[in-house]
Amino acid sequence: MEKQEQISIKNDMLSIDETADVLGISSATVRNWIKLEKLSATKFEEKYFLNKESVLNLKENLADSDLLKKRRNKSTANGRFIPKSYISKASPNYDIISSVIKALEENSQITDKDFLAILTYYGKAYLDTLSLDEAGKKRLLEPLAHDEDDSFSHILSILKEYPLTYIEGEDTLGMFYISLRSLKTKKASGAYYTPFFVVDKCIENLRDVTSGTVCDPSCGTGNFLLRLPKDIPLHNLYGYDIDSIAVVIARINLAVKYRIKENNELDVLFKNIKADDFLTPAAPDAITQKFNHIIGNPPWGYSYSKDEIQKLGEVYKCARVSGNPESFSIFTERALSLLSREGTMSFVLPETLLGAGVHENIRQIISGKANIASLYYMGEIFDNVQCPCILLTLKQSDSENGFKASGTKTLVSFYKKSLKSKTKGKDSSSEGLYPERLVLIKSFETSRKKDDTSSFHMLCDDNEKKILDKIDGCEHFTLKGKSEFALGIVTGNNKTLLSPVKKSGYEEIIKGSDIERYKIGEIHNFIKYDPQKFQQIAPEGMYRAKEKLLYKFISNTPVFAYDDKQRLSLNSANILIPNVPGYSALYILAILNSPVISFYYSHTCKNMKVLRSEIEKLPIAKCDPETEREISLLVKKIINCNEASLYQKELSNKIAALYGLTSNELDIMTK
After folding, report:
1. Which pLDDT tens digit goes with each residue over 231-275?
2. Is 344 helix (H, G, I), strand (E, B) or coil?
3. Where are the CATH 3.90.220.10 domain residues in the chain?
């Protein structure tokens, strides 16, 4: 193929993994859709590529279709109009809002007038706690103005039974607005509303800030600005959002927080908190000032019109793509352009920004303009949404080479969400009121010296990086081009086709949960081999191979087992058949199951799915024939005995020696 054609494929096409990332489905599903001709793909050098524009258009077309909805876990069965974790479940307002929404759902059809009237009722209740004149309160509430009719008296009788309690820092009105809007439209919102404990993590570095400007470019009802320390003056806070009603609530929230009394304070509030688009620098009243700190959770996956895409493309590099550009990338690009010297930006973003090929454009922009001050892996923080998230903090760089500035360190932390609540009302402290939190798992500082925009993942500290370099530096080969891979069977209906007992004509079928290191555990499922009934299946020869390795598809490290009984497997247990001259399948099994490879994989790959592409990158140590035989024999002993711990320790030491690792380094890997 000509060089120009290769460049075109790189720029205009997506790999199967990249397509899966864009559509929010698995790579296996993409392959299956190609097989079923639901997707059109081009094969180049034994790999499939899909047209980027076609995939992005498909994403838009499927946004409201059953095909993707069935594949996304966004259940909203109970309390479906309540954004869980937006405020603490220990807050008295949580149950109040839930009760109001339930009562309204049962008793009323919410009209636009009712919607505004309810917001006005609770907004005024909060404003009445201020020493602000009636004209000032009216000015804040005026955008919610409406003509009440007799039907509202019934709703008013409900509201009077449920007064809200003012709690400093809590966006109670915002939660009410989100819930009420969802009730009015009779569907849960697709927006990802930031849990309060994630907001706190985002602003923790601003706890001691008393000067400098802070901007939330997609402020909504003001939940980020509301939780900032009160030592930051009101005139230093800025917020923008295209939702005009949300902006009204943000102003009310800040008016109450700062106990506004004077009209000049109101003037500041209206000047700084605006119903405006952060992304329109060409507008007459465009945002031109620089900010010391920009924080927030920018929109993800916003669907732009063709006209909007054209206008955005005139200003932003991230918008110059085929199909729909990614909104969080454009917000990040805009935020970096408005940071003051030494300014910081902290955004809640999807973890895919760090490694997906479709997001390399924003990684290149970040690389050129900023240092990565901190990277927090937070996991799945949004309720009922399977999307791991990060908190990325960037610092405006004086260097033209961005994070290549010498001596730059990045703080990397890993968190998990804890939702263990204390008994309500046990105490009134902030700890008692806000029990949900992010729990720190581990943290370290690391250097980032390479200008590598293919990935921003940082999974190891400097000492661990030295061990990785040592592993990479040993004489090794990879399995790419030297192995066959296959997916397990996708039945399409496990409930019907699988049996817990062995019937006539049925045989064992292995699930991922049956796979232990080195061997298959007890099998509890049986199936009749009838390929015509299966949704997806590999060539039968892959299952019936004389010997094969099976591995767990869902796992944070590789877990492989040996099978020489020609057994079937489900798609949670995939197949590897190594064909490396001079090295047995048992030797390959030993290396893949070793602490060395577990350490290497977990510090170079961030994925709960064990993908073929990652397995093919793993460095398999070379050795002499005698060592290969010794290791293969040890694996046989481990497979054939019940007490294998002594053999496993001997095997681990032998493999560590192949990579030139010391006992201390092995201890670090297995700690």
Report:
1. 999 999 999 999 999 999 999 999 999 999 999 999 999 999 999
2. strand
3. 476-670
